[in-house]
């Protein structure tokens, strides 16, 4: 069903015999999508217009399909049509096609043609094409498709590309390659420098790569120091979350400090729930390594009210380690009692309650 009459009228105009009317209608539909107004019927018609006899209409339809795909609309039948645009000379057209196919890859719709051309796109003269190709390489790697040649191209781009946005996309791709066992520790210094980039997206990507390498056992003391400084100054919540997640991975490899421990406690009060979740995970790793304090326990207590089972398991581990060290709280006890019948958490809660009873709190 259509969300509004205006969109329905625009979709009807897509059948107009005049290509200019079709093109204008598509552009208006894209504007509607940017305002949050979409409809499955509109998406189906836009996919069909990827075969329009008029080249200008096809390119406008491509932009519209990308806009819809980025808002969660998918169609396996669209991928072969999108692949046809990969041979276009116009870099904007190539970027739209790569991005739309990449989003289908996320949902498991494979594209052999993009995979075949990926290495060429990583060498493209246009920086937007290189960046989109790097992001596609990331998704392919997450799906299990990696190649030594693409890996070499990504390493070269991380070291040499003049575009920060390209290097940020490459950092994400190399993080995914690391998950598949393809690493080069020699580039850690290159990615560290991205923590100082002017773009928060690039800073976030750099932290994600450092996290992936740490999880494989490769850490850098200089990167640790830079992440500490970056977290102190970071204004973007997504970048803060990525940095805290990287610090959690570093803690997992015993790279810790009292100063970072205090910063993680402060992060529990972050306005972003995602940053809070990351800080809880990091503090769990820190608590396993003997970092406990009444201040940390007080700060983590409010997270026991967030209905997120994975988060609560991390928080309960922090609370348990504190209890084992004799650090308990009446506030935490009240929250634990409220959770005692929570499905899937009862065993963990009961274990902590037993420790609290040994400390005289019941």
The assigned structural class equals mainly alpha
* Helicity range: 55-70%
Number of strands: 0
Spell the H/E element sequence.
Answer: HHHHHHHHHHHHHHHHHHHH
Beta content comes to under 5%
Uncertain regions: pLDDT < 50 for 5+ in a row? none
Assembly context of the chains:
single chain
Number of helices: 20
What would you report as the Rg, rounded to the nearest angstrom?
25 Å
Major sheet, described briefly?
Answer: none
Give the mean pLDDT: 93
Identify the overall geometry: globular
Please give the alpha-carbon distance between the first and last residues: 56 Å
Describe the structure.
By secondary structure, the chain is mainly α. The protein has helices at residues 5-13, 19-34, 40-48, 55-69, 78-83, 91-106, 112-122, 127-142, 148-160, 164-179, 188-193, 200-215, 221-233, 237-252, 258-267, 273-288, 294-300, 309-324, 330-339, 346-358. Helix 2 (19-34) packs parallel to helix 4 and helix 14 (237-252) packs parallel to helix 16 (273-288). The longest helix has 16 residues, at 19-34. The radius of gyration is 25 Å and the shape is globular.
């Amino acid at each position: 069903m259509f969300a509004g009459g205006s969109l329905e009228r625009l979709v009807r105009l897509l059948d107009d015999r005049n290509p200019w009317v079709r093109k204008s209608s598509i552009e208006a539909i894209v504007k509607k999508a940017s305002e949050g107004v979409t409809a499955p019927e509109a998406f189906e018609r836009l996919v069909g217009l990827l075969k329009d006899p008029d080249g200008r209409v096809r390119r406008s339809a491509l932009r519209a399909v990308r806009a819809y795909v980025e808002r969660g609309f998918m169609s396996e039948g669209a991928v072969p049509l999108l692949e046809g645009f990969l041979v276009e000379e116009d870099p904007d057209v190539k970027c739209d096609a790569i991005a739309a196919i990449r989003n289908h890859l996320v949902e498991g719709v494979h594209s052999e043609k993009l995979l075949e051309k990926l290495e060429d796109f990583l060498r493209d003269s246009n920086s937007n094409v290189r960046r989109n190709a790097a992001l596609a390489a990331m998704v392919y790697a997450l799906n299990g498709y990696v190649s030594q040649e693409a890996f070499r191209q990504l390493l070269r781009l991380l070291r040499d590309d003049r575009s920060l946005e390209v290097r940020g996309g490459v950092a994400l791709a190399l993080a995914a390659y690391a998950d598949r066992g393809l690493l080069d520790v020699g580039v850690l210094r290159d990615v560290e420098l991205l923590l100082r980039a002017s773009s928060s997206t690039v800073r976030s990507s750099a932290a994600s790569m450092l996290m992936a390498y740490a999880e494989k056992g490769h850490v850098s003391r200089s990167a640790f120091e830079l992440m500490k400084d970056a977290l102190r100054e970071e204004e973007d919540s997504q970048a803060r979350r990525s940095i805290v997640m990287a610090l959690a991975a570093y803690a997992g490899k015993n790279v810790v400090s009292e100063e970072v421990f205090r910063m993680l406690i402060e992060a529990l009060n972050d306005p972003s729930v995602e940053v809070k979740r990351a800080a809880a995970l990091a503090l769990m790793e820190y608590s396993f390594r003997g970092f406990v304090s009444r201040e940390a326990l007080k700060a983590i207590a409010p997270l026991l009210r967030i209905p997120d089972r994975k988060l609560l398991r991390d928080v309960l581990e922090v609370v348990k380690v504190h209890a084992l060290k004799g650090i308990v709280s009446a506030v935490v006890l009240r929250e634990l009692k409220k959770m005692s019948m929570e499905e899937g958490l009862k065993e963990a809660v009961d274990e902590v309650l037993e420790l609290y009873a040994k400390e005289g709190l019941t």
